[in-house]
Protein 1
Amino acid sequence: MRLIVGSWCVLHYCGRSRHKRLTPELTIVVKDVNAARPRWKWLLLVTYAAQNKTYTGRPVRYSPYPFNSYRLLPTSSGTTSRVTAARAMRVLVVDDCLDTIESTAMLLRLDGHDVDTANDGVTCIARATVFRPDVLLLDIGMPTLNGYAIAREIRRLELVPKPYLVAVTGYGTRDDKRQSGEAGFDLHLCKPLDMQTYQGLVTLVQAGSSIFDTARSLTQQNQEVTTDLMFRQLDMANVYLDLAATTLMDDRRDKCIAHATEARNKVSRCLESGACVDDRVAAMVNRLQLLSTRMAAYAREVTH
């Protein structure tokens, strides 16, 4: 396996991360790293392709994000984009860290999606009204307008198509998820995200639509990631039911119930498409039944 000029690597130097596009000079540094620059550490990102002898010796393109997942993407035709199984989505990536924006956008584009970016709330809202994303990956901790404020404004605009809002943050407590639910997020995910997570999102968002035939062609690894996302979607559905039970405003309660119902239906369609790994189907069905029972009980309580 050899490096190619023009590919990306991540350089860890003195505890800091830097994205570098390989040049002939940097390629030499990589080859001589142990002898010439022992305190420089290049993270050569590794994935299933690197362990598969089919790809041995072929040129590879290194993905710079996330730093700790060690993913590698072969440039050969050995890996075809997931958009052969589902249409390319329009994805808006919003983060105040330019490195995160660039690396996330690159991963999504490598998978065939149409990507736009923004590094602040005002720009995000302006881009969203023009770009009309299918999915919006939104960082929470940003200056001026944080992710919660941006999500509320996006929901207020009632864009068509309705974007699937994903909170991407370093915080994953129950209270953090509750705040995401109050702001109108569809899903709450903790950093870092990798290519498999993005591909799982495609399955989750598009399951049951006419453009997504089946999820049974997914690899085992992608199935496992998609299954995790399905469970997280059910968690968000329960968060919305919690919010519905505590709000005093009828319109707000109706929106929470609608969000919970949409999340449940999305997971049901995903389950029917075969995206859930076999040994977790029973647990998934049980969680769906518990959620449906809770929703029915809440509906009866509101009626009376």
Note: The domain at 80-193 is CATH 3.40.50.2300 (Rossmann fold).
Protein 2
Amino acid sequence: MLKERCVITTDSVRFDNQHTGVFQSAHFKGFVFGFILCCVLVGFFGTLHSKASDDVTYDKLYFSYEIQSGDTLWDLASEYNNEQVASKDDFIYEVSRMNHLSEGTLHQGEYIVVPYYVAK
């Protein structure tokens, strides 16, 4: 693309005709190379990290829990859920379903079944 560029100096004003191409500049090529290199490295190291965590398997066990004053399903998920196995939302859904808690309301003194995970 041919552009006309105005060059202002302290003595005069002149116009230069020069060939400019954004995609041909060294800065743009360096940026693209750096971006691609970062994507490759992140993909490579992300794969290594996920393979390391995939090697662990878990047994799912259950226990009976007596509801204490102020307990919430979110608190139980924070205490007993393993986020590498299930999200807190999935844990809460499972506890609610197993214990027939339609509204998720817990009452002090009641017992519920709670899953937990142990690495093999």
Note: The beta strands are 2-8, 13-19, 58-66, 111-119.
Protein 3
Amino acid sequence: MRKKAYLVGEFSRFVSVGIAATLVHLSIVWSVIRADLAPPFWANLMAFLIAFVVSFLGHYYWTFKTRLPRNHAAARFFLIAVTGFAFNSFVLILIVRQDLMAPEWAAVISTLFVPAITFVASRFWGFPRPGDNALSNGD
């Protein structure tokens, strides 16, 4: 029961950090696109990189409190985040090229697809606790 309660708390912290990072991401990508400072893909990349810092620091120090060295956890989380970003970008480009909706709204839709996959990968590989499972032992 205690482990379940901890996981619920961890997930709640993940959601809080994720919301903060997502709001950073969306506010930057929306603003850059609306101001016509960059095309949607480049605006999304810029927003991703800034939101990555917010997300990593929040998850490392608060959500997961891993014992991994910060640079090791950062490298793992960066791989997770880049995979999520690639998926996010694919969806964004697909929606924009098909002219299914305005680029600002396409950025919102594409950004909302990633969090569930990111939680599982982060919890068990990016920021593992000792004894979590076999995935946390390998690089």
Note: Residues 2-34 form the longest helix (33 residues).
Protein 4
Amino acid sequence: MDRREIENFIEKNGQALSEGREVKGEWLRLSQFLPFSRANRPGVRKVLTYARDCLSEHLPLQAEGYERTTEDLLNVWLGVAANCGTLQSVCADLVGMPDPETIRTYFKEQLCVEDLPDLEQRLNAALAAEIPPRVWRRAQEVAIDFHDRPYYGKTLQAEGLWVRGQARDGTTRFYRIATAYVMLKHLRVTLALRFVLPDEDTVTIVDDLRKRLKTLGIRVAELFLDKGFEGIAVMDYLTRQGQPALIACTIRGKTGGMRALCQGNKSYRTTYTFHGQNQTAFSCVIRGMPITDSGACRSLIPAHADH
């Protein structure tokens, strides 16, 4: 969408934009990236400015040139994050931006692989600075998830630091981040993040995030882990730590096993024994869930269980 198309869009939908009503979902994108637009709502611009100021305080990004500024780099960074897009798509939307390779060069020069631990620390500091005070008032139900971004390059794993995962979007290679967050009034508040590197196991990831939460002074009433964390090792770790948790478990096979537990019209509890490699076993209380309308079946496993 070039400037002429944007001006035509604003002229055609000016009244709706001035009233703050959605017009084909375009006003939000325009208000984020186009300061000359009538869609530039004060509230949205305030959020963008606040986020940019927060990042500039914690990220080591600089571009004090004639054509590019630090603000430009942060706008692109936030654009990619907010739209789950790419440098190409965001630079195409931002008026006056250079080609994405120029922006990529700035990022490569200032965000090096060797500085990944420092970057993780800076981002966690930025997240901590924005945690609402109510999070500390009582113990929280905290969720830990994996977030994968497809990687289509040819760099070796040891150099590119990508990890393998289940095939999705045409690849089994991903950049992976683990996050710990709470839900406050139906809004997600991220408390901490952890870059996942090759050969790191899930127990290490969960342990590091729990240590980060402890450092922040956040009490965890119960952990909710997605199916990427299922396994005897994580269940055993959480049990030894005395940490109540609920872990989503993948249902495999067509009959028997955990699928046989997904029956009836209501959830229920029973004891189930998981068998792992090297003749390891772990018994715990499992909550069976009925089959959903889509035919899917899922079980949730409280990890405060018996060996």
Note: The longest helix spans residues 42-58.
